[in-house]
Amino acid sequence: MDSNILLELSNQYGCPIYVYDGNKIESQFARLSNAFAGVKHLRINYAVKALSNISILKLLKKSGSGLDTVSIQEVLLGLEAGFEPEKIMFTPNGVSMEEIEEVAKLGVHINIDNLSVLEQFGHKHPNIPVCIRINPHVMAGGNSNISVGHIDSKFGISIHQTPHILRIIENTKMTVNGIHMHTGSDILDIEVFLYASEILFETAKQFKDLEFIDFGSGFKVPYKAGDLETDIEELGEKLTTKFNAFCKDYGKELTLVFEPGKFLVSESGYFLAKVNVVKQTTSTVFAQIDSGFNHLIRPMFYNSYHHIENISNTEGKERYYSVVGYICETDTFANNRRIKEISEGDILCFRNAGAYCFSMASNYNSRYKPAEVLYYNNESYLIRKAETFKDLLKNQIIVEL
C-alpha cells in the first residue's frame, strides 16, 4: 500500500492501528489457486489462527476459501461469518473430548492427532468420518517454535504408529476419509516439502476410504526487499504431478487441501504506531513508540523481522535507530535498524503485520488492544474498534471487602 494512504488512515483512525489490504489477500488466494490449477479438486482452508477478524473471514469466504480451525471458538467465528460446516476443518491438539464432541455436533469435519482420542471417538461416533493428522518426522520451518513435524513434536500421530491406527479403524468400524500433515512454518526449501509429501502418500496408500489429502501449509513469504520466499509456482508444478500420479494409482480422484495462514494475510498487514520519544544514550538512539509487545509480540517471541518505515519522512536521510515499545520489560522491535530520520510524532509502519500479530495481542500492562481497519477497493472500513477502559473492566467482578 502507498505510504500516503497509510498516513491518511493513521490520521483518520488514530494510532496504534492495524491496517489490512483486502486486495492483497485476494491476490494471494488467487496465486495459490493458480499454482495448483492442474489439480482437478483443490480446496484452500484459511488458517483462522493467523488473523481471525470476522470481516477478514468473510472476505476469504468471498474468494472461495474454507477454514482451518484449532478451537471451538474459531469454529463458531467461521459459522458466524457464514461458512457452511462442511467447509470447516477442526484440527485441535490436546483439547478435551468434550470440545471435540461439541464441534462434531456442529457438523464440522474433525481432524484427530492422538491415538487415544481416535479410539474414544471411533467407539462413540463410528458413523462420523474423520481425518487423521500424521507426524511425518520431518524437521521443517524457520524457527524451532514453528517446526511441528519432527519426531519430538507434540503434534500428529507418528507414521510408525500407523498399524495402531489401522487396528483402531478395524475395531471401531469408523471411517477415515482424510489424511493430513503440517511440518512447520516458513518452509523455504520445497524439496523438504516434497520429501514429506512422499511420506504422506506412502502412508495414505494404507487407508482405503480417503476423499482428500491435506498437506498443511508453512509457505515462506518475503519479509524485506530481495528476501527469499517459497516458490509456490514450482511447488505447484511438482506437487501437482506427484498428486495426480498418486490419485491414478489410488484409483480415485481425491481433493488436494492446503491450510495457509501467513501466506494469505501476512503481506496484507501494516501496523502503524506513533513515535512518542526519540532518546539518545551514549551508544544508541531509541525510537520509543506508543505500542509494545502487547500489540506485536513476534519480534520478542520468535525473533522475527518486520521491515519498519518512517512514513512521515519518506525522503529523509537514513540513520540508525533501535525501535522499542512502552512495556516495562525488554520490548524491542528492531536493533540498530537503518530508518529514515525519525522525529517525535512521526508514524512508523511495520510491514508483514497481517499474520499472528493482532491475533496474539494482549492487555499486558493494562494497555488497550488497537483498532483494525480493512482497506479494500480503495475504501477503508473500521472492522474493530480500539478498546477503552470499559473493556478492561468488562468481565471483572468487583468484590467489596
Automatic annotation (TrEMBL):
GO MF annotation list: diaminopimelate decarboxylase activity; pyridoxal phosphate binding
Cofactors that this protein relies on: pyridoxal 5'-phosphate
Domain Orn/DAP/Arg decarboxylase 2 N-terminal residues, every copy: 24-266
Family annotation (NCBIfam families): lysA (TIGR01048)
Protein name, per record: Diaminopimelate decarboxylase
PANTHER family: DIAMINOPIMELATE DECARBOXYLASE (PTHR43727), GROUP IV DECARBOXYLASE (PTHR43727:SF2)
Coiled-coil region(s): none
EC number: 4.1.1.20
Domain of life according to the entry: Bacteria
First-level EC class: lyase
UniProt entry tagged with the keyword Amino-acid biosynthesis: yes
Binding site for substrate: R298, Y302, E329, Y356
Residues annotated as domain Orn/DAP/Arg decarboxylase 2 C-terminal: 18-354
Stated role: Specifically catalyzes the decarboxylation of meso-diaminopimelate (meso-DAP) to L-lysine.
Pfam families in alphabetical order: Orn_Arg_deC_N, Orn_DAP_Arg_deC
UniProt-annotated binding residues for pyridoxal 5'-phosphate: G218, Y356
Residues with N6-(pyridoxal phosphate)lysine modification: K49
Gene encoding the protein: lysA
Pathway given in the UniProt record: Amino-acid biosynthesis; L-lysine biosynthesis via DAP pathway; L-lysine from DL-2,6-diaminopimelate: step 1/1
